Amino acid sequence: MRPPNPVIFTLGINHHSAPLAIRERVAFHAEKLHQALADLTHSGRVREAAILSTCNRTEIYCAAETPEAVVDWLTRYHQVERGEIAPYLYLHDQPEAVRHAFRVASGLDSMVIGEPQILGQMKEAVRVAEESGTLGTQLHKLFQRSFSVAKEVRSTTAIGANIVSMAAAAVHLAERIFESLATQRILFIGAGEMIELCAAHFCARQPKLVTIANRTVERGRALAERFNGTAIRLDELGDHIAQHDIVVSCTASPLPIIGLGMVERAIKARRHRPMFMVDLAVPRDIEEEVGELDDVFLYTVDDLANVVESGLESRQAAVVEAETIITNRVQDFLGWLGARDTVPVIRSLRDSAERMRRHEIEHALKLLARGEAPEKVIEQLSQRLINKFLHAPTQTLNFAEGADRADLQTLTERLFHLHSGE
Fold it and tell me: Residue 1: pLDDT above 60?
């Protein structure tokens, strides 16, 4: 008996299901994803896998016979007790796993509905899985369909119109603290895509000073030049942070890079002038205790959710349209999955028919070699082929009884395009 095709499912935790303190405990760092995927699929119980890990979600997309192995692996890999994260985990099996992938790619499951950044993050997750050799036929097709659906949603609905991005929300909050950003000094920590977006939004207000701090100073300098800023090394933060009114951080560091002591010294040097800080990293770049300081306004990705909430109502009509598109495309994909299950049966049927054909051709050639009339040989060949091919289904129909016979008759009519009474 051939093994069953593995089932696609998604195991995850996101901003809907868990607070930041829980999400950061199961986040995956980009430089360790290859090893994590190899470790996950090593036992063979998980045949295909891809990991999507962002500031708002950690999701494992798999093709496997059971999700239990993945839950066990996740808790072991991050060294957390199952009971600590179990209440926050969600598990989507087919067809909901397919629907979820389509919704995530289309921005419908994001903190900011319709935001485009998640699509790029999903494509990066697929690239890493391909490089790691853990992306098989089913997940490859799932993600390609997800990208296609996202494109259709964005091109045929207004889901991305007037979008309020995380970066724009950060600017909005900063403008509540400072009368004008044009007089402020801004420090960006990191040089990834999120920092680029934030820099573009903040620098549109023409701040007084822009500094980029990054582990690789060359990359930081390249970003700083775009915004007429300067670049420093990450290990120079302690010497420069006090000179800045606004700090926006988003790195892939597994541990906080801005501690309570560093900020306390900065506030003292600033003579208690307020400091606005945005921590967009998961795990956090800025120690949680920093937010308790009187002169610091610290916001995390979860805090920004309240700011973007007001824009949801205007996009509800587009969301309804997008959900309809996704429902239709889910059915298409499930049809493809179902067709894959029939491939071995169709191949076996064709192989059986081919063996019959070859046997009868050999028999016919022998008759011709004996001098039999070609017309007679061809007639006999066709009759023998028909009899052999129809023998098994005819016998099955004749011996069937009751409901089985009725079901078989209906299926036979569908398979051979027959019509009762003809």
Answer: no
